[in-house]
Amino acid sequence: xxxxxxxxxxxxxxxxxxxxxxxxxxxxxxxxxxxxxxxxxxxxxxxxxxxxxxxxxxxxxxxxxxxxxxxxxxxxxxxxxxxxxxxxxxxxxxxxxxxxxxxxxxxxxxxxxxxxxxxxxxxxxxxxxxxxxxxxxxxxxxxxxxxxxxxxxxxxxxxxxxxxxxxxxxxxxxxxxxxxxxxxxxxxxxxxxxxxxxxxxxxxxxxxxxxxxxxxxxxxxxxxxxxxxxxxxxxxxxxxxxxxxxxxxxxxxxxxxxxxxxxxxxxxxxxxxxxxxxxxxxx
Length: 283
Ligand SMILES: Cc1cc2nc3c(=O)[nH]c(=O)nc-3n(C[C@H](O)[C@H](O)[C@H](O)COP(=O)(O)OP(=O)(O)OC[C@H]3O[C@@H](n4cnc5c(N)ncnc54)[C@H](O)[C@@H]3O)c2cc1C
Description:
By secondary structure, this protein is an alpha/beta fold. It has helices at 3-13, 28-40, 58-61, 63-66, 117-120, 159-177, and strands at 21-24, 46-49, 71-73, 76-82, 86-92, 98-102, 105-108, 186-192, 196-200, 203-206, 215-220, 224-232, 235-244, 250-253, 265-272, 276-277. The two termini are 39 Å apart.
């Protein structure tokens, strides 16, 4: 089961679906899963992560160890075994060793995707990288009569972040209804180089104004150490040293971009200290 389902069982129905589950994943929600298990008296047998290191920030990564729960990195879940209910799992560890662990459940905690079924069935443009609708800094979709906010815009953010972002986009909707929002006429499309998993918003409506989201939000797709740059018409207009991990929020403040007159697109590039600049993709 996933963590949302576990939390509905425990907090809404007062039910405890298992006693000794395996937890899969080390994103932030894994911590939420551990807290719920603790509250319900559930004692996970282990926590496994396919990546070589924790996805979440390191103080959080210490939490399962503090609870005495074994953590295995570089470990794949190969099989879930059992008939009426889960009896064991087959794991493959980083060194290739296979291990069967007895457990009575499997709790999934990561690999989120936006719930964008309505967008997929609509005429609105979908962004393959975020899995959500393509928006400008006001949350305005490809059809400017539609706005989107919250976790629909990318795989996952915290509740507080979504709340603050939703407030800004709600204000943009109010401004639009009052005729105070810059029209979606002049747009800067944003292209990303290899190594950048996604950018949101995917385009900027000009002129820039204090309304709307104040930053471009990015994620990288691997552990990265290098230079992040934004260019327009072949000229670098912003750059910053970057050291990041996948799933960490990276922000580029829109007011810091020295936008050139006449530019119709921006390119965000990542030059990795290990392997030099990447070619930009998908202009
Ligand atoms: C298991 C789990 C644990 C989490 N724990 C934490 C935590 O401890 N701290 C934290 O800060 N964040 C946590 N988060 C993240 C937090 O829940 C989200 O950031 C936040 O809920 C996002 O708010 P939202 O309004 O964008 O989306 P949601 O809260 O998901 O709200 C979207 C709503 O739209 C409804 N909906 C979707 N499609 C349709 C449709 N077609 N028709 C009608 N209604 C629809 C959904 O039912 C839902 O009610 C957790 C997330 C998960 C999944």
